[in-house]
Amino acid sequence: MFTPAVRTPLLLLLPAPSTPWMLHGVCPGLEQSIGGDLGTAGKCHQSWLVCVRGALGPCGVTAGAGQALRCVGLFFFFFFFFFFFLWYFFEDVFAQNRRELLLSLRQEFRYPGEASQKQLWTGKELCCDSMLHRYRHILGLWQPDIGPYGGLLNVVVDGLFIIGWMYLPPHDPHVDDPMRFKPLFRIHLMERKCATVECMYGHKGPHNGHIQIVKKDEFSTKCNQTDHHRMSGGRQEEFRTWLREEWGRTLEDIFHEHMQELILMKFIYTSQYDNCLTYRRIYLPPSSPEDLIQPGLFKGTYGSHGLEIVMLSFHGKKAKGTKITGDPNIPAGQQTVEIDLAHPLQLPDIENLRDFSELSRIVLEVQEQVRREEQEREQQQEEQEHSQQAASQPASPLGGEGAEGEETTAGAEGKTQDKASASQPFVLPMGVISRNEDYPRTCRICFYGTGLIAGHGFTSPERTPGVFVLFDDDRFGFIWLELKSFSLYSRIKVPFQNAQAPSREAFDEMLKNIQSLAT
Questions:
Q1: Are 451 and 471 in contact (CB under 8 A)?
Q2: Which is nearest to 475 in space by CA: 515, 448, 502, 444?
Q3: CB < 8 Å & 24+ apart, contacts of 353-362
Q4: Is-contact 150 325, C-beta < 8 A?
Q5: Is there a single domain that holds both residue 133 and residue 82?
Q6: Distance from the CA of 277 to the CA of which of 9, 23, 116, 197 falls in 20 to 30 A?
Q7: β pairing state of 433-434 and 485-491
Q8: Would you say the pTM of this structure is higher than 0.90?
Q9: How far apart are CA 94 and CA 83, in angstroms?
Q10: Residue 439 and residue 445: Cα distance in Å, rounded?
Q11: Considering the domain boundaries, does residue 18 fall inside one?
């Protein structure tokens, strides 16, 4: 009884039939109701809507209860068919518009990496696609808490995933090579209610993981299937694989015994953090037109410790280099070098520069001058404190002296910028060790600076004099006088997104936090 009711509207959807026998035996009530009118409709080629209108009326009045039920079923069939047709049509239109929008966003917000031209999405595109996804706050740069070693994590939107890429320096001592990176975790963006988190560590593919947002600028990751991190060959195979990835060589290629101990120590320490890690947000340093060069992230040589990542930032008359990755001597977060921009150094000619004692004499003279200036500054501060307790009349001369000092400083900065535009020959003094002999042979300007050295475990830290050498906009060096060592730094040319500090105060607070955690 239900089959004719289903077949009837399929025939009625066709153009008006030319003969009445097409409905014979299909719906007798309908045939009796419209009779010869069907032939007339076929001859006149009336639309199928007229047939439907004529069918629904008589069937409900003249037919019996069964025919009435068939007509009701016919009505609901047309209703749901029409609703399904509208949904299918407009869903396709909306999907097409959404694809066009995402395509335009992808073309607008390209993320060209340094080592590969990957097209990644930014946080703005994430908000458009995921409707305020719960994990949007973890986009940007982070420093993992791996003891003294630290690290650099960049969380971005890549296709339909949020991926955390761990950035690694190039193999020692190739400081000018591009950065390496590997995925640590990824989050599927397709799920709306409960996003899928996968751990990417190891060599067995993605597996189950978990992310917990501790607070605004801190989150942690946990692997729920640590067996995916293990290799069939045991710890020895894991160590050989890690050594090839981290250093690009085998243990037999490293002849220095102390360096072998440092490498083995790092492997044992970092392998303890393969199942759970905590990350803290870091910002790129803000820049200003008065800066000597563009601040940012650099990779530098640190002797047997290999290449490490350093953040160069400017603070008035000072420039600071803060470690983002570290070692057991100077851990991540500590201020590795400090440059005194108010005391440029005039290097001797190229022949005398090869003499280490001559360079040492020049630097020690500037160090003594800096010490005297600091003592005078302390005395002036004490005098100002006494003068504030006296009457307000003597305050005017002090203000004039302050303005005079500012003019002198501004004049010194102007001379420094003029000197930085010219280049002069440069060569390392005899006896100074450099991991990379392919350093520039000309420099723009040199400044007096201090470098932080310490024993194993950051014991007995002290600042020792050194020379900051600016080669160009993307490279600088530092001569450690006491260690008779030279570190070469090269800029990391990766356009990190969502990494700018909201303010200078927020950046300074970030530096204090990572340094206090390292201490």
A1: no
A2: 444
A3: 353/425, 353/426, 353/427, 353/429, 354/427, 354/429, 354/430, 355/429, 355/430, 356/429, 356/430, 356/431, 356/432, 356/484, 358/429, 359/429, 359/467, 359/479, 359/481, 360/481
A4: yes
A5: no
A6: 116
A7: parallel
A8: no
A9: 16
A10: 15
A11: yes
Summarize pLDDT for 182-222 with one digit per residue, the tens.
Answer: 999 999 877 555 678 999 988 888 999 999 988 889 999 99
Tokens for 447? 């400044």
Query: Under a CB-based contact definition with an 8 Å cutoff, are residues 369 and 376 in contact?
Result: no
83 with 142, same domain: the answer is: no
Domain containing 440 equals 328-386+406-518
Q: Which two tokens stand for residue 323?
A: 């470690």
At residue 87, the pLDDT reads: 60
Q: Looking at residue 418, what is its pLDDT?
A: 52
Backbone angles phi, psi at 407, to 5 degrees: -65, -40
DSSP string, 242-291: HHHHHHSS-GGG---HHHHHHHHHHHHHHGGGSSEEEEEE--BPP--TTS
pLDDT at residue 337 is higher than 80 = yes
Q: What percent of the chain has pLDDT over 70?
A: 69
Q: State the chain's mean pLDDT as an integer.
A: 78
Q: Residue 41: which of 14, 68, 59 has the closest Cα?
A: 14
C-alpha radius of gyration, the chain, whole number: 37
pLDDT at 179 over 90: yes
| CA–CA distance, 398 with 405 (Å, rounded to integer) | 11
pLDDT at position 500, please? 93
Report the run of H or E that residue 44 belongs to, with start and end.
helix 37-44
Residue-level length of the chain: 519
* pLDDT tens digit sequence for 125-137: 444 444 346 788 8
CA pair distance 57, 47, nearest whole angstrom: 17
Domain assignment of residue 345, yes or no: yes
Torsion angle of C-alpha atoms 83, 89, 91, 92, degrees rounded to 10: 160
Q: Which of 134-143, 396-405, 406-415, 420-429 has the lowest mean pLDDT?
A: 396-405
* Cα–Cα distance, 364 to 366 (Å, whole number): 5
The tokens describing 147, both together, are 């003891």
The secondary structure element, H or E, covering residue 58 is helix 48-62
* The predicted structure's pLDDT at residue 330: 97
What pLDDT, on the 0 to 100 scale, is given for residue 427? Answer: 94
Q: Which two tokens stand for residue 420?
A: 């930085």
pLDDT at position 74 is 78
Q: Tell me which residue has tokens 């730094």.
A: 489
pLDDT of residue 158: 87
How many structural domains is the chain composed of?
A: 3
DSSP 8-state assignment for residue 31: H
